[in-house]
Amino acid sequence: MNLHGLRLFHAIVRYGGVTRAAEELNISQPAVSSQVKKFERELGIQLFASEGRRLVLTDAGMQLTGYAERLFMLEQDVENFVQDFRAGKKGLIRLTATYLPSNFLLPGWIARFKQMHEDVELVVSTTNTRMAFDQLLRYEAEIAVYGGGGITHSGIHWDELFEDEMWFVVHPDHPYAGKEMELREMVAEPFIMREEGSATRERLVSLCTTNNLAAPRIALQFNGLNETISAVKAGYGANFISSLVVKEDVQQGRLARVFVRGVQLKNTVAVCTRAGEVLSPAAQHLVELIRQEASVMK
To answer: How far is CA 245 from CA 5, 164, 239, in A?
Structure first.
């Protein structure tokens, strides 16, 4: 199909004649006439008939007009989409996040992003650290928002947002509540933690290994962050967790801190992307908003 010829044919129909079509397209009138006649020969179909000095559409020309209009409307839709995509107004962002940012940070950040970019589609998955990085490297996600220890991972670019403290917490009636304890005493308690692959769980195990202590006993294991906190609130065991998650519970007396001598660990919240790659425009806008929102938390 000669799309140039179809475009000239459509212009003649749209503007009501060869002269006006030539003016609108900034092409000479003889050139338009000759190109349309060539287009008719290529198709083997007569599209126009002469009524005196006036061109009228044949039945075939009328039917082709409908197809041409739909085609060029679709072409305009494609051009509009490309323009909007380049401007970051449209697109699809696949985002994966670990439990800390997914539960306590992303809902507010994404809501503000959608208020400004309503036509950008967001698909968010929540998983542990290991799976989040796997999804990023397998191109199942464009962005990963991570909360945990300041680890490194080959092929991943880190954009650190802020840090918060890691706390040991127990029920307010626990014998250690509000007290200063030795690490060996603390890790002798039963712990409620997330599944293997959780960065926080791995940091607790690493802390014990560094201090020549046995790994803590994981008495209860959940795949969700809120469930681990709820179990401690119910009166059983201890948790090692980001202060961002439990600060309000501690302030309102639903949980209590245990101050462990010599332990002052930080939790890093970061935006991660594949190293050496340029984000889509919409994803760039999202990362910029996340940086702005996170800057007030430093």
So the answer is: 65, 10, 11
Share of the chain above pLDDT 90, in %: 74
pLDDT tens-digit profile of 224-272? 888 999 999 999 999 999 998 899 999 999 999 999 999 988 888 999 9
One-letter identity of residue 181: M
Looking at the DSSP bridge assignments, the partners of residue 13 are: none
- The amino acid that residue 291 corresponds to is R
Task: State residue 220 phi and psi, 5-degree precision.
Answer: -140, 140
State the first-to-last Cα distance of the chain, in angstroms, to the nearest integer: 60
Find how far residue 276's CA is from the centre of its chain: 18
Residue 104, both tokens: 């306590």
8 Å CB contact between 228 and 198: no
Are 259 and 170 in contact by the 8 Å Cβ rule? The answer is no
Backbone angles phi, psi at 36, to 5 degrees: -70, -40
In this prediction the pTM is 0.73
Bridge partner residues of 124 (DSSP):
95
Compute CA distances 227 → 234, 252, 268, whole Å.
10, 19, 22
Annotate the chain with three-state secondary structure.
Answer: CCHHHHHHHHHHHHHCCHHHHHHHHCCCHHHHHHHHHHHHHHHCCCCEEEECCEEEECHHHHHHHHHHHHHHHHHHHHHHHHHHHHCCCCEEEEEEECHHHHHHCHHHHHHHHHHHCCCEEEEEEECCHHHHHHHHHCCCCCEEEEEECCCCCCCEEEEEEEEEEEEEEECCCCCCCCCEECHHHHCCCCEEEECCCCHHHHHHHHHHHHCCCCCCCEEEEECCHHHHHHHHHCCCCEEEEEHHHHHHHHHCCCCEEEEECCCCCEEEEEEEEECCCCCCHHHHHHHHHHHHHHHCCC
